[in-house]
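Weekly sync, protein design subgroup
Attendees: M.S., D.O., the rotation student, P.L. (late)

Item 1: inverse folding check
M.S. brought a backbone from last month's batch and wanted to see whether the design step gives back something sensible before we order anything. D.O. pointed out we never logged the input encoding, so this time it goes straight into the notes. Structure tokens as presented (428 positions):
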């Protein structure tokens, strides 16, 4: 049995950790089988507890854009750690990374660092509510903004009714302030504004979605949301936790030339340490404590190790922006190879891609929102996932996740992956 030690570790973990994991997707629930336990990682590869080497297409769900254990990032963390790991007092490095982030991303003057993407999005919504004096938000089905209560909401019974909790523990009181629309559907957003005049504080979305596979905004969608927000006095929040510092230096705002009011970050911005951030123009950020009345805080926020990793990562991306082109080229190469292999096998599929994000859906129709993503054949995906894993290729253990390429991947790795897809596709 090739996963013997991982399976043993999973049994032990389940005795003391709910479901054996500290974040649900890791448990392989949607693909079946036991999760792989990682021992270490370097560059484009994971090394598991059973001594296998895997080509990694998750990159810790995005952060490791330059590959695992990237030397400048590791060196920065090691050096900082020797000088103390947390003070709960201001440090110079926080200003340094803030200055760099503000210079890289369009339209932001100030940034506040937090410890996760969840915190960033939760705080961004509180800030939007505090700034606008309104309580409701619009989110899109299938977009994930972390696990804070306002986001764990599913659509109500009618298109323009209130949302309802999709996890026990989320109150109906909270749910009524989150309105749901389908991704890429401007008409529904218009209807929500019309049904809730003067009540909507903000629209929050992943401007390129990565939590229902990779889904691109349709032509005019982001611009249309910008206009609807302006007409209705609402703020536009781009959740760039996945896309920020990945699709371009300045994220989707730069790539698609649409300006949001508040932007959230996570993943790449922390170089693999627990970091999130939210940013906006000074007029909005000045509402935040201690400058303004909107409360937000964190004992470990701006932690020196996290800031050191983040600063090393952003510095490298800022100085070597050709990384984004290199990643885009590699992803396109992979796309073409996978497309050819799957086409030859006759399996029904569709591939979505932008920059270094790509997803393979076993669906007939174009995948443009949560419903079309959900129409994919999950049984085929499971076989695909386990087939690739047996070949030493690790993709996300869920049909609803994007793959994230890292720049340590070589063309040989990509060819090996394409060959594995060709082999596995014959079994689908
Ligand atoms: N927003 C997006 C777009 C995400 O993909 C995620 C996490 N995958 C989050 C927010 C939440 O981030 P975290 O898991 O760091 O809380």
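Designed sequence read out in the meeting:
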């Amino acid at each position: 049995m090739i996963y013997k030690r991982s399976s043993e570790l999973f049994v032990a973990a389940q005795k003391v950790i709910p479901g054996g994991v500290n974040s649900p997707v890791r448990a392989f629930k949607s693909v079946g089988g036991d999760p792989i336990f990682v021992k270490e990682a370097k560059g484009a590869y994971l090394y598991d507890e059973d001594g296998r080497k895997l080509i990694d297409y998750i990159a810790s769900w995005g952060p490791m854009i330059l590959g695992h254990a990237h030397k400048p990032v590791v060196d920065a963390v090691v050096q900082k750690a020797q000088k103390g790991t947390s003070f709960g007092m201001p440090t110079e490095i926080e200003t340094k990374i803030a200055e760099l982030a503000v210079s890289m991303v369009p339209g932001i003057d100030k940034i506040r660092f937090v410890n996760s993407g969840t915190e960033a999005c939760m705080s961004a919504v509180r800030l939007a509510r505090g700034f606008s004096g309104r309580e409701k938000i619009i989110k899109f089905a299938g977009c994930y903004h972390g696990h804070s209560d306002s986001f764990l909401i599913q659509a109500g019974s009618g298109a323009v009714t209130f949302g309802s909790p999709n996890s026990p523990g989320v109150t109906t009181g909270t749910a009524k302030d989150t309105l749901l629309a389908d991704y890429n559907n401007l008409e529904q957003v218009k209807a929500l504004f019309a049904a809730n005049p003067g009540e909507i504080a903000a629209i929050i979305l992943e401007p390129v979605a990565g939590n229902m596979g990779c889904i691109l905004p349709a032509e005019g969608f982001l611009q249309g949301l910008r206009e609807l927000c302006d007409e209705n006095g609402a703020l536009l929040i781009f959740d760039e936790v996945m896309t920020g510092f990945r699709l371009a230096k300045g994220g989707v705002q730069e790539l698609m030339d649409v300006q949001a009011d508040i932007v959230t970050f996570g993943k790449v911005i922390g170089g693999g340490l627990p970091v999130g951030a939210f940013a906006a123009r000074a007029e909005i950020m000045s509402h935040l404590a201690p400058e303004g009345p909107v409360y937000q805080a964190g004992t470990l926020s701006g932690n020196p190790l996290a800031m050191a990793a983040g600063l090393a990562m952003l510095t490298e991306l800022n100085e070597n922006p050709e990384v984004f082109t290199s990643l885009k080229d590699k992803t396109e190469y992979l796309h073409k190879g996978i497309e050819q292999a799957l086409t030859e096998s006759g399996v029904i599929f569709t591939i979505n891609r932008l920059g270094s994000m790509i997803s393979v859906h076993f669906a007939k129709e174009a995948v443009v929102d949560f419903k079309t993503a959900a129409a994919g054949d999950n049984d085929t995906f499971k076989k695909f996932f386990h087939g690739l894993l047996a070949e030493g290729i690790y993709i996300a253990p869920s049909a609803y996740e994007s793959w994230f390429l890292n720049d340590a991947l070589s063309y040989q790795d990509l060819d090996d992956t394409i060959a594995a897809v060709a082999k596995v596709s014959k079994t689908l």
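Discussion: The chain has a mean pLDDT of 96. The CA atoms of residues 223 and 258 lie 6 Å apart.
Action: P.L. to compare against the previous round before Friday.
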